[in-house]
Amino acid sequence: MPKNSKAVKRELDDDVTESVKDLLSNEDACDDSFKKSSLIVNSREGEGKECDVEEGGSDSEEEERPAWNSKLQYILAQVGFSVGLGNVWRFPYLCQKNGGGAYLVPYLILLVLIGIPLFFLELAVGQRIRRGSIGVWNYISPRLGGIGFASCIVCFFVALYYNVIISWSLFYFSQSFQQPLPWHECPLVKNKTSTHVEPECEKSSATTYYWYRDALDISDSISEGGGLNWKMTVCLLAAWSMVCLAMIKGIQSSGKVMYFSSLFPYVVLICFLARALLLKGSVDGIRHMFTPKLEIMLEAKVWREAATQVFFALGLGFGGVIAFSSYNKRDNNCHFDAVLVSFINFFTSVLATLVVFAVLGFKANIMNDKCVALNTNKIAALLGNGIEATLIPHHINLTQVSQVTADDYHQMIDIIKGVKENEFQKLGLESCSIEDELNKAVQGTGLAFIAFTEAMTHFPASPFWSVMFFLMLVNLGLGSMFGTIEGILTPLIDAFKVRKEFLTVGCCVLAFSIGLLFVQRSGNYFVTMFDDYSATLPLLIVVVLENIAVAWVYGIDKFFEDLKDMLGFAPYRFYYYMWKFITPILLLVLLCSSFIQLIMTPPSYNAWIQEEAVEKTLRFPPWGIGVCISLVVMAIMPVPVVFCLRYFNIVDEGSGGLAAVSYKKGRIIKESGRPEEDDDASLIHGKSPSEAPSPMPGNSIYRKQSGGGTEGDTAPNGRYGIGYLMASTPDMPESDL
């Protein structure tokens, strides 16, 4: 560094200070209240000018936005957010239900047509504008500023019940350090005269009983609250404490946690796959999984469910993607990130599907062996009393049931069915097919807490595998929770400039308090309600509006200029047509079909009836239907409210309270408004002083350089622009931050 650099810097700072004083002395429009330590860019409608005030002192440092420590940390954060519980317990179910391996074809097609373009769009706007969802959409179009608020509300609703699922996983994790596992067999009830198996467990199964009775202690309907379940309340408190501690310092603290929470699930999945492949019947499950049923691909429902899964798998519309990318450098290659994270998500879903069906194939073989043994005993009991001994092949010895194989049993059944075709139903014999067992499709909590836990009880060293599985679920959930909470905190901090620590603690305390609704005895039914109604329709509307805002309101051509300026190369023309035509049309079709399905399907939930030990589908009571409607309306309400406030000028599009963006350093700007027809410059694209159409210093806001010369005064939105800098302020829509 030159010896006289400090002197040069001091002279430059003195020049800037003098220019500030000169401008302030001639500035009548700037109110004294604006003369504070932060620069305020305030656009006033009708005046066509901007008043910027900078603190005179040159020693204070420019406020910097937090940044990721490394590219790996950022990628892990995005992967952790997008890869969640749905990849483990939703994708395998959809794959099985919708044609096995054939389902991957529509999924991949829609991933390319919907998933990657929208994911790229959210990454790009977040990285370029460097704000959370509220700031981004206010910046692009103040009248569509409600999109950001809607995203925040949906994130909050999802966080409320998503953390409850993490608390369930924590409970099972804490109970897994036992041999045998507590859900290994049905409990015994002892009285003065006898000991018998718990009737509710005997009618269902050990894992089903443990889930509904020991873990949830569930009531018979949503109307029966039943008080708090203290075990789950403690687990929910632990879950929110973990989220709060990880998020309290923002990405500086949560980013470090990502190394474990994002990578550990892959270690567990690979270990599970290796172990499952060594078990009897695992290949049956995988074969069943990937046997394509091509005729199902022609059904519209398959494509709708594939589109919905693509949509939610990548976390579109939540604001978490935008929040995470806003901490990137502006020249980061977000197109590469979008493709990479999307395909990591897809291959994770396929890996999880392999694991799930390898384990379920093992479980199906065990259940099939039990079925064969039970029905062989029935045949032995019916010999001479409905079944003639001559019908039994000579090589089958019914006195040794354990030696009767599945093939032997099916041979007997075929003979008996052929001879006693009319009387076969009365004999009460089952077919005992592995395919039938695998066709019992389960998803969500039924897969994780019932089917999978039952399979693990038959593993050697079952407590170890149970600990690993539920620790994996906790990490998958936390990775998604970090992105969801970031989608709430980052926009609010950008908008209202509150302390991150206070807002994080306040948000978590409020969410835990409301979350007590989900840990009462009827809480599982409220989780179902929020899962079905608080996110699906509102998020679809949010993403449709996001796409329209960028492609049509702001302009796809301007957006492509911004991307070229930011990335250093023009994106493929493929994205131009996707964003402008194909993706909006597909989203509108998906939105309409989801809305029709919602209208045609009466609001209902699956209730566990204790006396009968079965699940029954019940309608929500009138107040429950009211809550369902309220969830959808509350999530969408900010969009029309903000639009009306802006459109009818109830809240000025340039009002100080909603349009001010605070920075610590900047330059004074006073410039008359440009004619409407000249407003063709890019909203985000910056120009260097030499390119500016006016010699006035207010054409762009630049970071003050420490070295001399005009060459270093580069436009902040070019390849070297970082920090809280925005350019071309006369041409940009007013921000509502």
Automatic annotation (TrEMBL):
The chain crosses the membrane at residues 74-92, 104-125, 146-173, 228-248, 257-278, 306-327, 339-360, 464-489, 501-519, 539-556, 577-600, 620-645. InterPro entries: Na/ntran_symport, Neutral_aa_SLC6, SNS_sf. Keywords: Glycoprotein, Membrane, Metal-binding, Sodium, Symport, Transmembrane, Transmembrane helix, Transport. It is found in: Membrane. Residues 44-65, 671-737 are annotated as: Disordered. One of its GO terms (biological process) is L-leucine transport. It holds the Pfam family SNF. Na(+) binds at G80, V83, N87, N345, L476, S480. Residues 52-64 have a biased composition (Acidic residues). GO terms for molecular function: metal ion binding; proline:sodium symporter activity. It is a multi-pass membrane protein. PANTHER family: SODIUM-DEPENDENT NEUTRAL AMINO ACID TRANSPORTER B(0)AT2, SODIUM/CHLORIDE DEPENDENT TRANSPORTER. This is Transporter. It comes from Oryzias javanicus (Javanese ricefish).
